[in-house]
Amino acid sequence: MTTMTSSSSTASALPVRRSAARRMWRSLYRAKWPLLALAILTVLILAAAFGPLLAPHDPNRQDIIARLKPPFSSAHRGHVYFVLGTDGLGRDVLARLLYGARISLIVGLVSVFVGGVIGTMLGTLAGYFGGWIDDTLMRIADIQLAFPFILLAIIFMLVLGPGMMNLILVLGIGQWVTYARIARGQTMLQREKEYIEAARALGQKTPGILFSGILPNILSPLVIIGSFNIASVILSEAALSFLGLGVPTTTPTWGGMLAESRDQLLAGRWWLAVFPGVAIMLTVLSFNLLGDWFRDFLDPRLANEN
User: Fold this and answer.
1) Which residues have a Cβ under 8 Å from the Cβ of 245 and sit 6 or more positions away?
2) Is residue 29 part of a domain?
3) How far apart, in whole angstroms, are the C-alpha atoms of residue 247 and residue 167?
4) pTM score, two decimals?
5) Most Cβ neighbours (<10 Å): which of 114, 130, 174, 257?
6) What are the residues whose beta carbons fall under 8 Å from the beta carbon of 182, sequence distance 6 or more?
7) What's the gap between Cα 304 and its chain centre?
8) What are 251-304's pLDDT values in tens digits?
9) CB 235 within 8 A of CB 203
C-alpha cells in the first residue's frame, strides 16, 4: 500500500515539474537576451571544464622567441601557433584565457554559495528569534557595511596571503551581510503567518519550522540576489588579481592578464588587454542578464505572464 502511494505521488509530481520546465523555457525564449546570456555562460563553463583539452599550449610555457606575437600570427616554420597572440613572455593568450575562466567561475560560484549559506542561516535565526541574537548579528553587519568591501578584502588578503581558498573565504564572508538582511526581513514576515502558528501548535520543533517551513518560502529573493552577486564577486576577484592579491601569480587569471598588459598598451599590443577584458565583460553581463530574468520569473506577480 505504501509503495503504491509513493509511486502515485511521484507520478503526480512529474507533470508539475514538466509544466514548470516548459514555463521556464518559454519565459527564456520570450526574453531573448537571457537566452543569449545562458548560451555564453554554457560556452564559458565548457571552456573552463575542458580547458586542459582545448588549450593549444601550456598556459605557463614561455617562448621568448615568440613573445608579443599578434593574433593569428605564425611562428616556427610558418605554422599558426597562437590564435589570440602571445604575451611578453611568449605565453599563449588563448590558453591563459581558458585557464582563467576556471578560476573566475570557481571563485564566483563557491564564494556566493559560502556567503549565501552563512548569511541565510544567520539572518533566519535573527529574524525568527529576535532579541539579543537579532541585535548582535545586525550590529556586526552594520559594522562590516561601514567599511568599503574592496578595502577589507585587500587588508585580509595581505594578512592571509594569496591563494584560492583564502580568496574564496574573504569574498564569501564579504557577501554574507546582504543575504542576512534579506533573510531576516523575510523571516520576520513569515514567522507571524498562520502556517507557522499551526506548526507550533502541532508541536513541531524549531529546526523543523525553520528548515521545512520558513526557509523554502524565503529562497526566491535570495536566489535573485545570488545571481547578481556572482557578477560582482567575479569583478572583485579580477580586481584583487589585478593588484596581485588574488591567487598566486603563477596561476593564469583574467585580472592578472590585465595587470600584465599595462606596460604593453602604449606600444600597441592591444590584444593583451582586450581579450581578458572582453571575457570579464561578457561573463559579468551574462550573469546580470540572468539575474534580471530570475527576478521577473520568480516574482509571483509576473508568474502568469511568464
Assistant:
1) 153, 154, 157, 158, 162
2) no
3) 7
4) 0.83
5) 257
6) 123, 218, 221, 222, 225
7) 29
8) 888 988 888 888 777 777 888 889 999 999 999 999 988 888 877 777 655 544
9) no
